[in-house]
Each structure stands twice: as C-alpha cells, then as structure tokens.
Please model this.
Amino acid sequence: MNFSLEEIIKATVVLFAVIDIIGSIPIILDIKRKAGNIHALKASFVSLIIMLLFLFFGEKLISIFGIGVAEFAVAGSFVLFFLALEMILGVNFFKQDDKAMKTASIVPIAFPIIAGAGSMTSIISLRAEFDQVNILIAIILNIILVFVVLKLTNPIEKLLGDTGMAILQKMFGIILLAIAVKLFSSNLQELLT
Model:
C-alpha cells in the first residue's frame, strides 16, 4: 500500500474531469424537472458502490474476456476521447434513452451520468498507473463532491450562469482530451512491446 498525495491529486482530477458533475448540472436539472426530486445521498451512495466494485473487481471482470488492463485502457482512451469531444464541441455521440429520463432519479443520475462508462474506464486505466489506495481516496473525494453538487444544484446554476457553465464544460473537455491522448500513448507502447 503506497499512499501518495501526488497520485491522489492526479486521480482525483482525472475522475473529476470524467464524471464532470459541474458540466452535468443542466442534465441533472432536466432530470429533476421530469422525474421529480433527486435524492443526493442515494445517488451518491449507488455511484460509490458501482465505482468501488469496478475498482476492486473490474480487472477480474475484464480478464474473464481475455483482456488486459493495457487493452482496456487503450479502448477506454477512445471513450474518453469522444466524451471530451462532446464537451468541447457540444455534439452528442452517446444517446440517452428517453424512458430512462422518466424512471427513478437514481438510475440516470448514479448510472450512467456519475458512474458511467467514462468513470469505469478511467478507474481501470488509473489502476495501470496508480496504487489502489490512492484511487480509492480519489473516488471517495469525488463522491463527496458529487453529493455536495447534487444538494446544491440550483444555487450553483444561478451562481455560474450559462456562460460559466459553458466555460467549465469546455475547460474540462480539453483536460479530458489530453488525458485520453496520454492514456492512449502510454498504454499503446505496452501493447506493442
């Protein structure tokens, strides 16, 4: 167990960019309007459980299919790449089912918005670079932030305004794009050797 503040900070930033809870505020507000009240504690808890399961068992799960962490990280870099393009260009590569928007708020919020393909891919990819305990702490820090944002969605939206929200989304999109390129290049070398 190698506790590293540097790894915690890096993993926290990666997960923060991927989860993009700030950029998801407009989506969350839309879900809240359609589905009713959002239960911040339940959504945060379910997201935490999903991420922890993937942290501890994700590698075993992908190994069942004969895939290693490097292969998953390279594949995940493509997912992160397209998520970043969505954030930067404002296009939709990943479609959301209208029926899911009308179900309980936990389903679209906890999964796939918070603990979706991007965060799961990132967790597996981070396992290739960082110690598990540091990723665990980063996940917990992000879930705390998710809980706070879900509790304060309306005041945050008023504080940032449309312009502030757009700037944050573009900024985190560029960070995520750089992370995707780094994941691709560093893990591709391992695959080719």
